[in-house]
Design brief:
single chain; 653 residues; alpha+beta; eleven-stranded mixed sheet; six-stranded antiparallel sheet; 36 strands; 31% strand
Length: 653
């Protein structure tokens, strides 16, 4: 979940850029035929369905299109807009399309195949490049010229839907060209391609840190009064300009806190700085867990690292796990790397000559704005060059450079265009409506986890909205349930993330939807878990059934019903496949039951055929049951014999 844009220039840039492209395309003083950017060389068009393309030209101009060994004539309307349709085609290619009017456009390397519209927030955004250590071999061996991605740039529009996008390209999944691909979408596409051999197009329209309502049209949100009021308010340019001016004024007036590490005779990273009164601290770990209480501010870390001669003078990489929030790395007085927010893995490449033989002074300046600050545990911390590795974990020394007072920042409400209802739909979805697709992939929810009670309604509204816009109520909608995240609690607990997962589960009430359960694929210390391959391949299993009508087991067990039988509860599931089992061979774990008071306690559980029986001596008359109900359940081990995990659920809602 990458952070929303916070600075005024970023917000203004996205708003103005969208308005600019809208203006130059649709207020056109030209006579040339033009196409939206997704209609370009190497595009993949949806097979087995009639295909449409559209664009602009001089009002009433005749356009001749040569395609598929035929000629098609269309005429622009009085506003200069035109549209052409072609009959359904089998998978294959390459084809060439020529458009002739005042000017001539030739589009090459066109394929027919299956196109998937992939959207959501950062876990859909995350590129293969971000996970290039885990998937180094997949990148090196990528040789799929018929898998192609069209990447939609991050844009917003508060006024309403726009009709085009900035220039883009369809990129093939070949070698390093696969690095910008959504990792989830790539592994999904690869699984589909390897099974069916048809070209696969990925339209990747996703933005980190964004809520579901930003991706739904104003018509799709018409039943949500608060959101429709916000949409109307945001269309008032005077109101938005006032907000932007207020934010700019606050930022201009804000006086940043003084960092003693930068204001002394020599900064604390300087090679000649002599450290005094620095205290020991361990990496990894949060400083609040190591004797520093409730500190938001700037903390400096320092250590001398011995570098062997064989590692000096060579390129190297420093892994600093994850750091909360921002960091700057200095080596021997030189600033060599930095990251401005907490989520990315710190994998810093060093040029030859940065490291010298013998003692090297490493200094890390960390800025923490809230919550625990420091180095996230259970992540890699080392230097490596070739086959040589130096461990960076252990005792360092720290000194506080600045202590932030509560609410020391600019203050006042922040405005982020990309978080506003319909803003991303208007600029990143609407221009693609009508482009033929096979279905939708959706991976989002983290940004709505703080208010999960409305998510079921929002997701069902989004599914209906997108299908309505594409004029096809049967389009498959495949989505990912949130994985486990945050600290494990070994007592039954309440959890917003569990409520979110339950809301996502209820979207399966909508026909032709499927959900990839990912409860077992998370990382407690990373909202962006590294395992994207299993997520993509579980989505592909769902596609085999929903989009390709394969009679396969594509889901793990899903709660179906519960029956109270004396002091026990008997649970039945759908999607049991070849039968219920556990991944570790032990009894089913992570079940809890409660009586009428809804005070849950851990329950014993056993598999009886296609059922699970749960009970606890602490609850004589059980009424409710839960499974894997936590931010990050400790051992959700129930699966079907096909190896797919059971979906978390509760009967207490």
């Amino acid at each position: 979940c990458l952070p929303a844009a916070r600075s005024l220039p970023g917000v203004e840039h996205r708003i103005l850029l969208t308005l600019f492209f809208s203006f130059i395309i649709w207020n056109k003083p030209f006579a040339q035929v033009m196409l939206p950017s997704m209609f370009c060389d190497s595009m993949i068009l949806q097979r087995d369905k009639p295909v449409s393309i559209w664009g602009t030209a001089k009002p009433n101009e005749k356009i001749t299109i040569q395609f598929l060994n035929k000629k098609y004539n269309v005429r622009a309307d009085s506003e200069g807009n035109w549209k052409a349709s072609f009959p359904a085609q089998k998978a294959g290619g390459p084809h060439q399309m020529t458009l002739i009017a005042t000017n001539k456009i030739i589009l090459k390397e066109i394929l027919f195949g299956d196109v998937w519209f992939c959207s959501g927030q950062s876990n859909m955004v995350h590129q293969m490049n971000i996970h290039d250590v885990t998937y180094a071999e997949d990148i090196a061996k990528a040789n799929y010229p018929n898998i192609r991605q069209f990447l939609v740039p991050t844009l917003t529009n508060l006024q309403g839907p726009v009709m085009t996008l900035p220039k883009g390209t369809w990129m093939p999944a070949m070698g390093d060209q696969v690095r910008p691909f959504s990792a989830v979408a790539y592994f999904f596409a690869r699984k589909i391609y390897e099974k069916y051999g048809v070209p696969i197009g990925i339209i990747n329209a996703s933005v980190g840190g964004t809520p579901i309502e930003a991706w739904t049209s104003s018509e799709g949100l018409k039943d949500f009064n608060d959101l429709t009021k916000t949409i109307e308010r945001n269309r008032d340019t005077a109101y938005i300009n006032g907000l932007l001016k207020e934010m700019a004024a606050r930022q201009k007036a804000f006086i940043p806190p003084v960092d003693k590490g930068l204001t002394g005779e020599k900064p604390w990273y300087h090679p000649e700085y002599a450290p005094k009164d620095w205290r020991p601290i361990n990496i990894p770990g949060y400083w609040e867990d190591q004797g520093i209480r409730n500190l938001d501010g700037i903390v400096w870390y320092r250590k001398e690292i011995d570098i062997p001669a064989e590692m000096s003078g060579k390129p190297a990489t420093v892994w600093l796990g994850r750091i909360v929030d921002a960091d700057e790395l200095y080596i021997n007085g030189k600033r060599v790397a930095n990251t401005t927010y907490q989520y990315p893995q710190r994998r810093y490449k060093l040029e030859p000559g940065i490291l010298k033989p013998g003692k090297n002074t490493f200094v890390i300046r960390i800025t923490n704005n809230g919550g625990k600050g420091g180095f996230v545990p259970d992540k890699p911390y080392c230097i490596f060059s070739g086959k040589d590795t130096i461990d960076l974990k252990g005792t360092w020394h720290y000194k506080v450079g600045s202590v932030f007072e509560p609410r020391q920042g600019p203050g006042g409400p922040a405005f982020s265009a990309q978080n506003q209802p319909s803003a991303l739909y208007n600029a990143m979805v609407a221009p693609l409506v009508g482009y033929g697709i096979k279905g939708f992939l959706w991976y989002q929810g983290e940004s709505n986890a703080g208010r999960p009670s409305i998510y079921e309604s929002l997701q069902k509204a989004q599914i209906k909205d997108w299908r309505t816009k594409w004029r096809d109520d049967s389009l498959p909608f495949l989505f990912v349930q949130l994985p486990g995240f945050m600290e494990m609690n070994y007592l039954p607990e309440e959890s917003n993330w569990a409520v979110m997962r339950h809301a996502q589960l209820k979207s399966l009430d909508v026909p032709n939807t499927a959900m990839a359960v990912a409860i077992d694929l998370g990382e407690w210390n990373d909202i962006h878990p590294d395992n994207k391959k299993d997520v993509g391949e579980r989505l592909a299993l769902a596609a085999f059934n929903k989009a390709y009508q394969e009679n396969i087991v594509y889901s793990g067990p899903v709660f179906q019903s519960a029956e109270i039988a004396g002091d026990k509860i008997v649970i039945r599931f759908s999607h049991t496949g070849s039968g219920l089992t556990t991944k570790d061979g032990e009894q089913p774990d992570n079940f809890a039951i409660a009586g009428l008071d809804k005070k849950f306690v851990w329950a014993q559980a056993k598999i009886e055929g296609e059922k699970i029986v749960v009970w606890s001596p602490k609850v004589g008359t059980p009424m409710y049951v839960r499974y894997a109900w936590a931010d990050n359940p400790s051992n959700p081990n129930l699966i079907n014999k096909e190896g797919l995990p059971a979906c978390p659920f509760s009967t207490a809602d």
